[in-house]
Design goal:
Number of domains: 2
Low-confidence stretches: 3-9
Largest sheet: 6 strands, mixed
Mean pLDDT: 85
Order of helices and strands: EEHEHEHEHEEEEEEEEEEHHHHEEEEEEE
Radius of gyration: 22 Å
Distance between the termini: 54 Å
Shape: globular
């Protein structure tokens, strides 16, 4: 049985922490076009070089972890998961990251995440699930950046019959929303937006300027639970979770300005500038403010935002209903060589609902049942077919969605297998 210390707080053994973290782990409901799963950071650290505050590459990297531990406080240091420098061709870099790190991932699973248990006072605990994604791609710029950390937080209360969950807080784009959640045996359903990986309590479109997050799972999708690996139980231990640098090469305009002004943190009004152009590679979990150091405060902010968020979401949905694409685009993917395919898309809809661009996600199915993501390519509608090279071994499949001028997305369309 769990022990109660003299202050009345519930003390858990290592085994008990692992058990409760796994019991209440979130069921992730991925959008149909999502091509990443959360993963452990090991392969990313093994493949990344370390850039110091002056932009120099540490000679002993990759792997990057040793340099990170030696330079924990270097605010301007960052990781480069690819040998080449980032550029404006965001979709190209995302596909290169997919080729480098995607083969180790299986879309048929929920991936893996890091779990952490934090005291909430009395017999309550916060269960934190930190999810790392190699890439934060973006179907339409802005917003793409290397690396991505997301957080799901569950409050549990110890009772005579064991633990019971009471609330769940989701940190979509750093803006938490808390809702009641009651369960004794399972975690919450979490809807993961395509590309941004922001977490939401409900499926569908979630308007946010200048883009709209979308999470539309396949019909009947029960969700996937990630494997949970506990973070070190001693939170005073300094490791990569407390490194002060950035998990990628991308700095948003707001962060760039804050660094030039020698500010320790990027103020909220400056962070808004990070939506212009490329996005911002994130700091380590232990450097993300209240979400790590004050989970109770983070939950309270989510409770306060819940009501204002509902009102704003309803207004945005009311406006969006008048313009979002209702007619799926006609997309043709044709094999012209063993690994070369053309994509052609015809316009659909009228006026504001007219589809102007189509994005197509490709994956292959392997004999052992695994699903491996391969690439995402976008084309303008009504233009000549474009040819893309897509290397694959198993049957190639694709799924596409159309976007209007307002960057709203319509319903996805999919294919049968294209080739062996």
């Amino acid at each position: 049985m769990p022990l109660i210390n003299r202050a009345g707080s519930l003390t858990l053994s290592k085994e008990e922490r692992v058990e409760v973290l796994r019991r209440f782990a979130p069921r992730l409901r991925f959008d149909q076009l999502e091509r990443w799963r959360p993963s452990l950071a090991d392969s990313y650290l093994l493949g990344s070089t370390f850039r110091d505050e002056n932009g120099r590459t540490a000679p002993e990297t990759p792997p990057a972890e040793t340099a990170m531990l030696e330079r924990l406080e270097e605010l301007k240091s960052k990781l480069n998961p690819l040998k080449k420098e980032p550029d404006d061709k965001t979709q190209i870099r995302s596909n290169e990251l997919l080729r480098a790190y995607g083969p180790a991932q299986d879309l048929a699973t929920g991936g893996a995440c890091y779990g952490r248990v934090v005291a909430a006072g009395g017999k309550a605990k916060f269960l934190q699930y930190w999810l790392f994604y190699v890439d934060n791609p973006c179907v339409l710029a802005p917003g793409r950046h290397d690396g991505d950390w997301e957080l799901v937080q569950v409050r549990v209360q110890s009772t005579e019959r064991g633990f019971a969950a009471t609330h769940v807080t989701l940190a979509g784009h750093g803006k938490p929303v808390t809702k009641p959640f009651h369960s004794t045996q399972a975690g919450p359903d979490v809807f993961v937006a395509v590309d941004s990986h922001a977490s939401y309590h409900e499926e569908g479109a979630h308007p946010m300027l200048p883009l709209s997050d979308v999470s539309v799972p396949e019909p009947g999708d029960p969700g996937l639970t990630p494997e949970v690996v506990p973070l070190p139980l001693d939170d005073t231990q300094l490791d990569w979770a407390h490194w002060h640098g950035r998990w990628g090469m991308n700095h948003g305009a707001g962060t760039w300005l804050a660094l030039r002004l020698r500010l320790k943190r990027t103020p909220a009004y400056m962070r808004r500038l990070n939506n212009v152009g490329a996005g911002e590679s994130p700091p380590s979990p232990g450097r993300q403010g209240a979400s790590w150091s004050q989970p109770g405060t983070f939950e309270l902010r989510g409770t306060q935002r819940r009501w204002t968020n509902v009102a704003l979401q309803r207004l945005a949905h009311l406006i969006g209903e008048a313009t979002w694409p209702q007619t799926p685009p006609e997309v043709t993917v044709t094999q012209v060589e063993p690994n070369d395919y053309t994509i052609e898309a015809k316009p659909s809809g009228r006026l504001a609902r007219r589809v102007r661009r189509v994005s197509v996600a490709f994956w292959e199915e392997r004999p052992n049942g695994e699903r491996r993501s391969l690439a995402m390519h976008s084309v303008l509608t009504g233009k000549p077919a474009k040819t893309f090279t897509i290397l694959h071994e198993g049957p190639l499949r694709w799924r596409a969605a159309g976007y209007n001028r307002l960057r709203q997305r319509g319903e996805p369309v999919s294919s049968d297998a294209l080739a062996q």
